[in-house]
């Protein structure tokens, strides 16, 4: 927002990469899935010496998983409550998701079931 922040030696600084990745000024329509968004613009794998060792493998695996999934004919949510993603809002516009049995929450969305034609 352009404000100046003074940090002294020894001060702790917390940076929310999740919130930063949703900053509309830098990421238009940040909360929408955009498969054409440059993959290097994502910050959730860290950077420099703190970069995720599995970054490249994860990116390839995710792309291939979505390609395989979206090739399925008749891909759709199952009807009723099982076809709904159960989200629990968190600070900063983030969400946790109900677990499959609705007995807890997880950072990973697993509660929505889908189906497709064979």
Helix-and-strand structural type: alpha+beta
- What is the general shape? globular
Strand content: 5-15%
Helical residues, percent: 10-25%
Q: Give start-end ranges of low-pLDDT stretches.
A: none
Strand numbers in spatial order across the main sheet: 2-3-4
Number of domains: 2
Report the strand count: 5
Average predicted confidence as pLDDT: 86
The quaternary structure here is: single chain
CA radius of gyration is 18 Å
Quote the distance from N terminus to C terminus.
50 Å
Main sheet summary? 3 strands, antiparallel
Number of helices: 2
Would you list the SSEs in sequence order as H and E? HHEEEEE
Briefly, what is this?
With 118 residues, the protein is α+β, with helices and mostly antiparallel strands.
Tell me what the structure shows.
This protein has 118 residues and is of the alpha+beta class. It has two domains: 1-71, no CATH class; 74-118, no CATH class. It contains two helices and five strands. It has helices at 17-20, 55-70, and strands at 76-77, 87-89, 95-98, 105-106, 114-115. The strands form two sheets. Strands 2-3-4 form a three-stranded antiparallel β-sheet, with no helix packed on it. A two-stranded antiparallel ribbon has the order 1-5. A hairpin with a 6-residue loop joins β3 and β4 (105-106). The longest helix is centred in the middle third of the chain and has 16 residues, at 55-70. The N and C termini lie far apart (50 Å).
């Amino acid at each position: 927002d352009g404000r100046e922040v003074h940090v002294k030696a020894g001060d702790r600084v917390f940076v929310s990469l999740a919130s930063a990745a949703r900053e509309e000024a830098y990421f238009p329509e940040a909360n929408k899935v955009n498969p054409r968004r440059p993959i290097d613009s994502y910050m959730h794998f860290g950077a420099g010496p703190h970069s995720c060792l599995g970054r490249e493998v994860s990116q390839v695996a995710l792309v291939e998983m979505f390609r395989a999934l979206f090739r399925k004919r008749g891909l759709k949510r199952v009807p009723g409550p099982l076809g709904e993603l159960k989200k629990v809002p968190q600070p900063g516009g983030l969400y946790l998701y109900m677990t499959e049995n609705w007995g807890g929450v997880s950072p990973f969305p697993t509660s929505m079931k889908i189906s497709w034609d064979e």
